[in-house]
Each structure stands twice: as structure tokens, then as C-alpha cells.
Sequence to fold (178 residues):
Amino acid sequence: MVALRSTIIMLGVVLACTYVTIPIKGEYRSTVEERGATTRVPETCPVTKPSDPPFVPPSPYPTKPGLGSFWFGTDKLWTILRTDAKWSQGEKTFWWRQDWGRYQWVPTENGSKLTVAARRLDAAAPAPKVSKATSSYREQDWKSFLVGGIDFPTPGCWEITGHYEDGDLRFVVWVIAR
Fold:
């Protein structure tokens, strides 16, 4: 009887410690995944995919950004995105413009004109902390660009907007837990 009771208690502990699967809008996810720990991008998050035909930056910038990523935007403002659309909660952002190609470093007064914002699409969330973009330069490929950062308060589906003078850019990413 004691052995049976111990077995039942152990089985209860094991079951209590496993992930519970719950239905959410026709999908099944574990409770850990529901909290944002999933690395699978749900179909309900309209992440940005490469355009067809793909955006190709003007010279002197490279036509292809590298394996696992793609350029997204227009000559007026573009960025680099990962093909899997997954970002971490603390992420760098990179921004380019055609007229910055003539600089070795984007002048401070030009860089301060870039505004970046983000909002969560799939749930209410506080605004993320967006770091001011600063100038950077890589001779071998990226040339002049601005680099900033976004610290997302929660994982989930996020829309990022960038604005610089006459250029606007909007894209969606899936943010995963740290």
C-alpha cells in the first residue's frame, strides 16, 4: 500500500512539472510557449518577408547582405532583416540611406533625424526602450550606416517603424525571450 501511494505521488509530481498544452486560436502551445518562450513564429504574426523582386541597395552598398538575411526598404531608408524574422528582446537595428553613401561617417546632425518606434501587435505591452542611433562605418561592405538598439519589454509580435526625412519604413518581427 505504501509503495502504491508513493508511486501515485511521484506520478502526480511528474505530471505537475510537465508542460500543459492548451488550445490558443486553433493552435496548441505549451504554457511556456504562451509566455513567449517559443522560437516558432506563429502564423498570426505577419512577419516581414523579402520583397519580390528583392530590394537591392544602390552603389556603393553590396547587393546582397549575407547568408540568412535580406535588405528591406527603399533608397530613402532601408534595413537588414533576418530571413527567420526572429529577434531577441535586446536587439541592434541598422539603417541605411542612399545619400549616406558619400560619407565615411553619417554626420551627427543627420543621424539625429532618424526616429524609431515599436509597438506590440499581438497583446498590450509597454513601449520598448529605443536607443538613439549613432553613425558607424564598415569599409569592406556596409559603408556608412546608423546603428541603434531596441530593448523589448516582452516577447511577441512587434512592428518597428523608422522615419528619416522623406523616408518611412515599417516591418514586423517575432521577438523571443532572452
